[in-house]
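Reviewers asked in the last cycle whether our approach scales beyond single polypeptides. To address this, we selected a multi-component target totalling 722 residues and predicted its structure end to end. The input consisted of the following lines:
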Amino acid sequence: MIYIGSSLSINIGYKKEEVSKMSKHDFNDLSGKKPIFLLTIGNTETGKIEGITAAGEEPELTDLTPPADAEFLYYDKCRSIEGVPITPDGIPTPAVLSKASLNLIETQFLALDAGSNVKAKAPTIDLGGSPGKDIRKPIAVEKTEEILKNAQLIGRELSTDDGFLMLGESIAGGTTTAYGVLKALGYDTKVSSSLPQNPIDLKEKVVQKGLKNSDIEEGELKNEATKAIKMMGDPVLAALTGLTIGFKGDVVLAGGTQMGAVAALLKEKDALDSVCISTTKWILDDNSSNLRELTSEIGINLINSSISFKDTDFDGLRVYEDGLVKEGVGAGGLLNYAEEKVGKNRLLDEIEETYESLRKK
Amino acid sequence: MIYIGSSLSINIGYKKEEVSKMSKHDFNDLSGKKPIFLLTIGNTETGKIEGITAAGEEPELTDLTPPADAEFLYYDKCRSIEGVPITPDGIPTPAVLSKASLNLIETQFLALDAGSNVKAKAPTIDLGGSPGKDIRKPIAVEKTEEILKNAQLIGRELSTDDGFLMLGESIAGGTTTAYGVLKALGYDTKVSSSLPQNPIDLKEKVVQKGLKNSDIEEGELKNEATKAIKMMGDPVLAALTGLTIGFKGDVVLAGGTQMGAVAALLKEKDALDSVCISTTKWILDDNSSNLRELTSEIGINLINSSISFKDTDFDGLRVYEDGLVKEGVGAGGLLNYAEEKVGKNRLLDEIEETYESLRKK
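The resulting structure, written as structure tokens, was:
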């Protein structure tokens, strides 16, 4: 565990405005180790259910967003699409924030494919998976064991005493599958969303249907993490779990609810040592999700970036303050680490420059 | 450049027995940095020309050896074939030596695919290439630019202050394509072989035909490295060149003649800084190849492992002393580095154990 002092006690009953006063991030325990940032992309048919995800409003977006995010991190521009992934509301992908962070820090970086419909036009590591099925089908992730094994291998082979692992994801519909997995494992949880009005009722219906069609009760898979992924999850959850298990050293799960699900899976696999979650301020500000309670219940440390766009001139960034798009592509971890390394002002400048250069293209 | 003192002056006119007295290896300049070992696999139709390569005597062997080598390094066992790749003469792949070395050192490891006929049953990074054509055809490596770019990207993204890059290869027919590239660049060179009687005449004929059919004279591509790869090379040469260019830091090319060709390509691209070649004792003992003269002419340092099997009980290892199979799969670099880290005796024990466990399977 990476401890941040007494922050866990501060967390109970916190008020929204207190978020800014909490110990935001603590990479100090990582003693100067360098990050190895891995972005895992994938798809789940669940992301195409109408009304489930912002990307889902345009099905092509669910397919093209993950590879485009990977390409943006590698090349500073996407190759599978023009511009960058943007929600129908006009919010640019958090890959913009992640890329800006990567520009300022020293890290190894690779993209991995756990099962995407459209392959990235960039060199990725194929984890031998395939796109996930709608979780209302009996089996959602056919190649769960294969992905877990391959991811574990990669995690192991990238291990080094001088580095810690930071994991990000890009998969549309991933909060619904995360919710499904958490329910199967028995957690009483709420999940965030990329839509203005969190489609809680719809997600609840989808997950309940999924549990029923897989013939499992809530909490029935409490001791069967692999099966929980297989029945109710997505390929990316399998990959993130495997990578963490394989890596010998500290792991920072960079994300929100989806990383909460990974933590729950790791707990069942008794692999939660030296793992923490780092997310964005916007995730914690979201009243319709309860990540802090979830991580507290699981017993994993949660740290967060303090980056806020309330003072930016750019509408496309300030809209993050509305909490529509809140996380993704490892933003919660990369922003946090970059801020610690170079300071908030420099990071904000870089984000604005990165965003501005997109608008000029 | 990684210097090993006055070894270059010792090299002129060296006698075979002097090899054992030279400064064998010098990773001291790498100041405690950890290796990042990348194995690049691929194929070239040139490897199927009858009589060109030991693997070529069984065409399936040319296709299956590279992926099997990658699998052996990842899993301790191959998945594409039973046992391990063995020449018709009964000599086990140098992947056995490389794997033993990997077992004893701390390194990150990944396999990359530059263009193989049979994909490895293991997670590799796809460099967007395709198998190389017979070099007697006008164009040998159609996707040269793509492979160079992708490899450069990976080299860059894996860069870290704490590490140095070590590159190995597995491709049948690679010494012939290396010879072709060197001739196109204007080097007067001899090359080694995996066959008992180095088929020099045949290689010469193939390369001359290749130059003619690509409409180039010897040395005509002296200033056109990319074209030299395209006309006379193979996908793996493109990958190794790109990886080295992209990596920010020291690079050890772990191999023999093929790495000599990579060095020549890097020189043309003005990218030879902080690069050296580390090969096996058997390569330097081979009178039919002149790697020392070549590296001296190029201006790149050549170091070597001193590992010898003259005292082993295992025939399948002692046969390496006959100089039939001499190098490959990064053996020349991994043996060298492992020996420096853990000592010769421990390394020899590990190699024998690895080999013996194969025989039991």
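Residues 1-25 of chain B have pLDDT under 50 and may be disordered. We regard this as preliminary and will revisit it once experimental data from Aim 1 are available.
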